[in-house]
Every structure is written in structure tokens, then in C-alpha cells.
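Weekly puzzle thread! Below is a chain. First person to post its structure in C-alpha cell form gets bragging rights.
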Amino acid sequence: MSTTTRHLINRQRRLAAARPVAAPAPVARTPRPSRPRRRRWPAALLVLAVLLGAFATWSAVAAADLRADAGQHNTALSDPAATSEVKGRITEAVNALFSFTHADPGRTDQAAQRLLTGRAVEQHRTLLAQVRAQAAAKKLVLTTIVTDAAVSALDGDRARLLIFADQRNTSTADGAKEAPSYSAAMFAVDAVRTGGTWRIENIDTYGR
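Winning reply:
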């Protein structure tokens, strides 16, 4: 190959390398229709708010109806003065009925005559039978103090109360080595007002 021919070929290669390459023609794209954004969470929250609002309204109405219905039969919910009275009277009664001293057993007997009626008379006698049986020999002293009382129902001259009490049993016999014993008691009583006096007519020890 001659020198002139070689120079010609090289020149053509340089020109081809320097020529810009044409970009491919762009492909036309069909625009997609835009979709509206769905606001799902606000809608869900709105539904939840409506449901909660409806439930709250229903609960308030139902609670009001229950209070109104209960108030017609249970004045413990609507008559604080009457509730406080029966609570105080029965607290005093329980303290007297379930306190006993060997030196003056008649005090408890008198309290039973004044403050008990119906089957509570026999129930009280049974509950104190063991204390009475040992009272003389051990010179027992039983002290009961009501720590709390709740009126669960009050309907005219009838009431039901839940009683919480602390009891202390002490032997004062000469040479007694037994330390005082302490216990907590919980029971319910049904009371009835007769002649202006509240009396216990039933003692519920919950199977004890």
C-alpha cells in the first residue's frame, strides 16, 4: 500500500470518529390519567369519631336511666342523710353486739335485745357461743371496732350494709400466757327500722 493511500484511509477514519452520533428519536408516550388521592385515614377517623360519639351518648343515657331507676328503689344513691344515719346506727350496733366481757356478759345480752330481731337473734347467739363458753374460765374480753361500713341498699325502712371490723380477743385470767389475738372480720347485715330504731334482722357471714 502506498503512502498516499494510507494517509487517505487514516484521514477517513479520523473524520468518521469525529462525526457526532445521531440520538434516537424519542418515543411518544400517552399520558396516564391522574388518579385522585384517596384520603382514607381522615375518613376512617371520622367514622371512628362518630361511633365513639354515639357510644358515649348511649352510655350516658343508659347510665342516667340506671341511676334514675335505681334511685327510685335505692335511696342510698340519692339520700346522703338517710344513708349516713343508718350507717352510724348499725356501726354502733355491731360494736356493741360483738363486744363481750366476762365481767359483764349482761351488757351484750341487753344490746342483743335492743338491736336484734328475726333470725339475727339466733345467728348472734351462735356466733358468740364459743366466746361465752370460755369466758368465765379464761376471763375473756372481746372487743370489736367497725373500721368501715358501706350501705349497699337503702329502701325506706330496710337496708343492707357491708361491715369491716377489727376484733381483739384477750384473756385476763391469772397466769394467762396467751397473747391477745387479733383478727379482721367482714360480713353483711340486713337491717330494718322499727319504732324509729334500726335493728339487725340478718347476719350474712358468707358461709363462715
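Puzzle host: Confirmed. Bonus trivia for everyone else. Residues 38-71 have pLDDT under 50 and may be disordered.
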